[in-house]
Design brief:
Radius of gyration: 23 Å
Number of domains: 3
Order of helices and strands: EHEEEEHEEEHHEHEEEHEHEHEHEHEHEE
CATH architecture of the largest domain: 3-Layer(aba) Sandwich
CATH class of the largest domain: Alpha Beta
CATH superfamily of the largest domain: Vaccinia Virus protein VP39
Strand order of the largest sheet: 15-14-13-16-17-19-18
CATH topology of the largest domain: Rossmann fold
Helix content: 25-40%
Length: about 400
Amino acid sequence: MTSCPVIRLKKDEDRRIRAGHLWVFSNEIDVAVTPIAKMSPGEMVAVHTHGGKFLAYGYINPASLISIRILGRDPDFLPTESLLVHRIKVALSLRERLFAQPYYRLVFGESDFLPGLVVDRYGDYLVVQITTAGMENLKEAIIAALDKVFRPKAILLRNDSGAREIEGLASYVESAVGEMPEEIDVLDTGVQYRVSVLQGQKTGWYYDQRMNRRYLADIVKDARVLDVFCYVGAWGVKAAVDGASEVICVDASANALAFVEQNAQLNKVEARVSGIQGDAFDAMKALRADKEKFDVVVVDPPAFIKRKKDFKNGLEAYTRLNQLAVQLLNKDGILVSGSCSHHLPRHELQKVMLQSARHNDRNMQIIHQGYQGPDHPIHPAIPETDYLKAIFARVTMV
């Protein structure tokens, strides 16, 4: 077994790890036997049972509730660049089985057994997000592994997520390999989009809703569509490509709407796509005041519930949003309601949608339930990796 500091768990606290979980919580560590307070964030450790038997290698952050994240379970191989190369190749093999073109989430953290690491692929370009101290310590090895496997034109580090603050990490964006263009193209469900991975949200694109946008194709032909929180037009532009008669996209960002316009032009549907800049709730209220009606309304907001303590206020926001959406639907319309909040269970979103329909004296039928795409696989032992919901519902008059 390779030498590194040993962390011993309390009695019987090894069961979750043996069952496949990748997190060790601070209250599961026997700090009397193996104190961790003075250990360096991101330091590699060996996790042992209370009785001293090896369980796994992982990295530690003594200041975090999730104190250790597991990287490897072979006692003879301490996680190094070679392990990263192996895990990246395994992740790549799944994506290549699923997608004909190289546009997908390549690494999805814990679900690809690389906790704290996200990598999105845009053809010859890679965008990396590191959210933990342990992965930050492995940054050079990560870059080397990605470069070895892909030889990309550029690798961009988008290390500016809020999760880094919790880990005590600085926020930054920098090129690691090559030079990332100001704008790059994405091919997603047969539609071409142009995005900025330097200035855009998260890593520049949201691959997770891919399959749900594909399902929308069967619904929008000849329909009037409203796309709220549209970002660069992933839902709205695709709806136009799939035959919608008119699409109105709503976003607070003028820059995002400029990309909507550009993406509509790229796909030759600009005559049927327009934008409204402003707060989503205000814009929807204005449309309601103008007695505008739509055959399909898509509401795909950012996470209103990022932490458990946000649940009440977040639930109220989802409720207001869905009520406004129902009010903008024609007599026999389709509501597509999304949530990327792990802390909002699917049944709660269904409840919000039903209450919104009944609040407006309408009936509702759920016709499809969507999940995150397969390039965002779910780790069966970690419920937090199962986060995305997209519920398609028919809303009719009583």
